[in-house]
């Protein structure tokens, strides 16, 4: 197939005719597939079944600090869990608080606290006329939902291949003291799969924000979620907490992580990592908010993994299951879309997503057509604040949940829809 | 021993001398006991060991709705957990949302949401000049900590034997639209052990608050926490959600509960129950806040209990362990303090606490003297907003954690300190 842009109207009409037939055929197959969310597959969940046995009634529930993990107590997490997650998120053990089952909830809570109590003594944001967040795009819809829920104005920041446009970030942050944060997924980002370069992280650490309560919201969701075991095929991210300290900005970052995509989504453990000054401020709230998080689940995680090496070995098993899934989609995209030259996509070495950019103005049509054919994708626009992709171009592909076989079918459906929507757009554009 | 009030100065001095000797003897024993918090004893925790085995790797993790509880999904709880907790809290299954491990956290969250987003469309409380809560006293320090954290002004409401002073509640609530809530522990209250009478609950349901966003914060923490199995020795509380609906106030109450003192504190499941209109409003937040709570722990609870009857049977085992603990304290109080006529205390048939009222101005001294002798009690004042007991009289006794043997010692220490502090006060008062 030739590049669509080189074709004349008749050639396009012919292709449209073929694609429509293929699309009708697909619709008749009664496909029912979901690539909308970064949901681990059943095979991945099976990897962690040992965790449910890691605590049994004939085991001790007393942790190494002598604490009976079945009872009340321990606000910021048992030392076993702190050690495990601080290694995972690459911070000193004193710079972490272990939370409940959801890092999203920790991020929500962090913004909610800032609204009512400010950040380390700053004016509560609810008392300010305007609060803004920078949002590298495309990004994670659930981040944007949090800031939207609190009426925080979101400003799009374009993503380059090595991270957000730092010229824009530096300029905005230094000029506008109503900018209080930036959402980042610095490694194997959602949806781009991009990892921030050393230069980008160093520029982050050296920001000179006008607002003292500006924080980098560093959602390290995919920190150990490599697709390949070989180190030269893995991305490396500089640790920002230490980098901020070096740069004289020790308090400027909140790091978040969880085991949601390590053990069981919804039954993992989450954490925040930050400077001690930040954590002290957070604990003033935490002690009012709860008596403590689920220590049995913390102990269960520790007993299952033993140590961080155990966790890394476990992640290799995830990678082995995810690689063929990513491959199934990427191979199909290559085969069916490359020559037509109507779309571009990322080829990540970690994380949970492939980011697909189609012809401007076509993303919504593609997603709708896929849906009509039985394939559910993330809503078009979801990767942008307010659900508004200004180019109507970006589609997030989440290949983790279906089987590789299903993914081949799904990717074919997607490719047919991309081509058909593009041809339609090109033909309409010519009118 | 005669009533202290009938004694003259010389007689009091003699008693003081004896008590001081006894107190010095006690201090020499090196006692180390904690009656400060409502913490279940180790024997109680052992009752739930079957729960950790209720999910094992050879079990199915698919719930009756066909949901794999290991994966993401289900915002408001699996149906098994909803059924269990809705029976526990006596509400229809459609009037409940299952949360994470802590009802305190749900209450915090409920107030926090009202601060930033109001209640069912009302003005966010952070935009108001003044927000007030009514606080029946003595009450639960962690309730008061939440409202204090958000700068909400707290007004003491005296507790009668059948519940809060409803004349005062009705008057204040109907006159002042800055009063947005009242903290209630309606059954086996903390610390009084009192259960609200039918008449009190009916008056609650029929309140005519000036503020549309006024809610009753009904913390039903001890709803099935009887000390006796015989029904005629149990308190009965009218269900307030239905009562509010009957009275034309369907949206006026938030009910909270958890299994913290049913299974494992910190590893239980919690819930809010309210009208559908309230729950719809809450879900708009919840969907931003989290992808879902720990469904495996929800399933674990369901599988362990089977149904609500299983839970009630389980509570009888708790009661059997708690009864001798309460008895150990109450017997000692009776024997050592009754004749002196210097204190009064509650004799609850459920819950976790005994409320002790000593001579005005003596509570702080008693708690300090106990502490110096190795017995930790809840801080004096803790049962009042801002930690300020205007009479310096109330002491909360939490007899659940130590063994009955230890409790006998602890109660003796307490009685000696009460008597000594009282004699000291009486002698000083005479000067």
From TrEMBL, chains A, B:
Q: Which InterPro entries match?
A: AspAT_Ic, PyrdxlP-dep_Trfase, PyrdxlP-dep_Trfase_major, PyrdxlP-dep_Trfase_small
Which SUPFAM superfamilies does the entry link to? PLP-dependent transferases (SSF53383)
Ranges in a coiled coil: 2-29
Q: Which UniProt keywords apply?
A: Coiled coil
Which GO molecular function entries does the Swiss-Prot or TrEMBL record give? L-aspartate:2-oxoglutarate aminotransferase activity
The record ties this protein, via Pfam families, to:
Asp_aminotransf
The family database entries (PANTHER family) matched by this protein are listed as: AMINOTRANSFERASE, PUTATIVE-RELATED (PTHR43799), ASPARTATE AMINOTRANSFERASE (PTHR43799:SF1)
| The protein, known as | Transcriptional regulator
Q: Which organism is it from?
A: Eubacterium uniforme
